[in-house]
Amino acid sequence: MNGKSHIIKLLDNGKRLDGRSALDIRQPLIVEYGVSKTAEGSAKVTCGETEVIVGVKMEMGTPYPDSPDKGTIMVGAELLPLSSPDYEPGPPSIKAVELARVVDRGLRESKAIDFKKLCIEKGEKVWIVIIDIVTINDAGGLFDISALAALAALKDAKFPDMVDGKLDYRNPGKKPVELSKEPIAVTVYKLGKYFIVDPLTEEDKAMDARLTITTTADGTICALQKGGDHPLTEEEVSKMIDIASEKSKEYRKAL
Fold it and tell me: Which of 38, 140, 219, 237 is the Cys-Cys partner for 201 at CB 3.0 to 4.6 Å?
């Protein structure tokens, strides 16, 4: 029996590889703030055996010509070889690029940060919020755990102070990054006729399709990202959105 057949047979009996039911999130689910002394904001999220750290750095830069009164965010992801035998050193893989893009979209489309409030001097100087995702141990569920860690790191972040015309990165600033929304990403996976959340690595590799749904606290959908080769029907998408909306409450509670 191959891996996918085994996973589906377990789901037929209401179980998964680790004994959870289809819609259970792994435990413990822990959010730790301020794990880095050198970043302007940081957080570590542990979900089962998956561990992700996110750091936030603030830089000053020039605004884009088409948005002279707006700062911006930049999200990057580094999948460390120590976190999984599937990862290798070198430039960002397709998986790393997609992970960064999903997290970026959730934050950007939800308007979690008002980019106009990142403007220092119109047309001249703005804040650029750099969000770095680093995997410590990848045992599955990276999309949701990374998005949660990114949000937690932003909640922890403070702007560096200016001393003698230069940014003082040595001492923590006092002005927090203002978040108008707190988007939570939940990825629902389809395996055969079943839907699951928070997959193990083996379940992730066996999936037919996945849909990452990012919602705000009031349930507003701000971003959708599909993955996998199999198409999804309108009914399936609706069901996945309902699941994500409900499970987002558990991730939000962990904050």
Answer: 140
Instruction: Show the tokens assigned to 52.
Output: 């992700």
Q: What's the predicted TM-score (pTM) here?
A: 0.96
What's the mean pLDDT in 37-43? 96
Contacts of 151 (CB under 8 A, 6+ apart): 107, 112, 179, 182, 183, 184, 255
- Specify the pLDDT at position 239: 98
Distance CA 254, CA 35 (A): 16
Q: Which domains does the chain have, with CATH numbers?
A: 3-254 (3.30.230.70)
Q: Where are the alpha helices (DSSP H) in the chain?
A: 3-12, 94-109, 142-156, 201-206, 234-254
Q: Give the side-chain half-sphere CA count within 13 A for 43.
A: 22
The tokens of 29 are what? 């689910």
Q: pLDDT tens-digit profile of 162-205?
A: 888 788 888 888 999 999 999 999 999 999 999 999 999 999 99
Q: What span, in angstroms and rounded, lies between the C-alpha atoms of 64 and 186?
A: 31
- Each residue of 201-232: b (16+ CB within 10 Å) or e? bbbbebbbbbbbbbbbeeeeebbbbeeeeeeb
| Half-sphere CA count of 198, side-chain side, radius 13 A | 23
Using DSSP's 3-state secondary structure scheme, residue 8 falls into helix
* The two three-digit tokens of residue 90, written as one number: 């070198």
Cα distances (angstroms) measured from residue 92 to each of 39, 58, 103, 148, 250: 22, 22, 15, 21, 31
- Counting Cβ atoms within 10 Å, is residue 156 exposed (0-12), middle (13-18) or buried (19+)? buried
